[in-house]
Write a structure and sequence with these properties.
Blueprint (H helix, E strand, L loop, with lengths): L12 H18 L11 H12 L4 H4 L18 H15 L4 H17 L6 H4 L8 H10 L6 H7 L25 H7 L13 H11 L6 H7 L6 H13 L6 H15 L5 H8 L8 H11 L8 H12 L15 H12 L3 H17 L14 H4 L14 H7 L7 H8 L3 H10 L7 H22 L4 H8 L3 H10 L15
Length: about 500
Amino acid sequence: MDWPLYGPSGVPLEVVLRDMKALATLVIHHATPEDLRRVAPPDVLDRLEGYRTKPLTARAQHPQGARGVDPPSSVTPGDAAVAAVAATTAIRVLRTRSIRAAGRAVRWLADRVTADGRRLYPDSLAARSGTLSPVLEAALRCSRETTLVPVARLRHRTVFGSTRPPSARSSRADMLPTALWPAWALRLSPRHADGRPTAQRADELLTVACLLAGNTTSIQDATRLTGTTFSRHTVSAFLTELTRRRDCAGVLHALILLADHLDAHDSPIDYTRRRALFTTRPRLIDPETWLDLQQRLRSAPALDARHAQRWIFQTLTGSPARIAHPDIAPATRSQHGQYQRFRWRILPAEHELLHHTASTLLDEHGIDEPLQWTPRLPARALRHLALPGPDLDGITPAQLHQAMPGGDFSIAQLAHTLQTTPAHVIYLLSQHPVDWSGPRFRRTQHTATRAPQWRTWYEQGDVSLQDIADREGTSLATVRLALLKNDVAMRFSRAHPTQR
């Protein structure tokens, strides 16, 4: 007989028979005649009812070696007709083609078991592991999916019909930023119709949820390990909201995919180490260096370097700026809003300086890791999932740059031009800075960006100021001024001998 439920490699026949016996026992003791009407004629069902009314012997009630099944699966009915009905019903479940299909096929029986007051919950299935195969155990977990709270659905990975029961995976916290990677946070965060997030700190809640996937770690420990603070109720309420929304039906699925990806491939960044190293630091960039660049790039520079400090902290640790050192963290809602605006209005030259400074800090601690990283999943894995956020590959950096107006701009108008959401545009601008400054300051920014290369050419390559200007298509005065501002000592030109 074909048993596709067990996969292409199959299992020994004794495993199938053991699963059949376990299911048949549940059928005998919990199925109603109405449940079995399609399996057997009325006279056979009457015999089943008669069998049920007969008391078991003391030995049958507590057979030697039976464990973890109520009633014991080792009890063999003495009536052949009863055994045939039970076995036929069990075979119908075991002949299905997938674990999730088996879960649907056995759901009615699981409902009967729980209605009779028996405990049939994913956690209780572990006690039956000596009796049930991992495949049947997974099918029974899936059969309870519609009755499970979302946290349990994450822990038991019922969306996949996984044969892997939950286990302790607290080490995954090292691979997770406190706030989920911006690309994934945008894709998975639920929003109101006007674009506002439905939950505050959704990116942090999503990280906690990713840690809980397939994991026995408690919610309290998960929040602590990821560097955040949430009550158990807050996490549960957020996950419940995800499962209620039609546009979020695939979010739990995507979180489990992310968790499995981390477990299988690891992460190149140890976020726990970075949180320990940089959360207590009151300064990450020299304020004078930052303010000098601001004055050269902007017509109205902000005389405050704390936004730059916050950017470096958030980029290094993957944590929200609010948990940084008190000298850095935004203290008010207004400061938080100003910092968020700073992140998407940053100019390319500013981004380059901040990126270089953050990378230097990693080097100083001997950390050989990329500054930032985001896990990528195959497009086919997400293709049919209902997710609340936009497809991040739908707009390229080049398209963003082409759509940018000259000078100041409106996020709403830019989103309309690109036919996407304001949240998507804000994400794109924070990841791919655009030079939106006016012509005068755009030239200044280009000069600030190229000045380090000019310095190298001038000091190490013995290239003249005029040659640099010719290479860059700019003026000699622009090159000279840029190098003087970078404390480059000018060479004196050799005087030509006069002829007599």
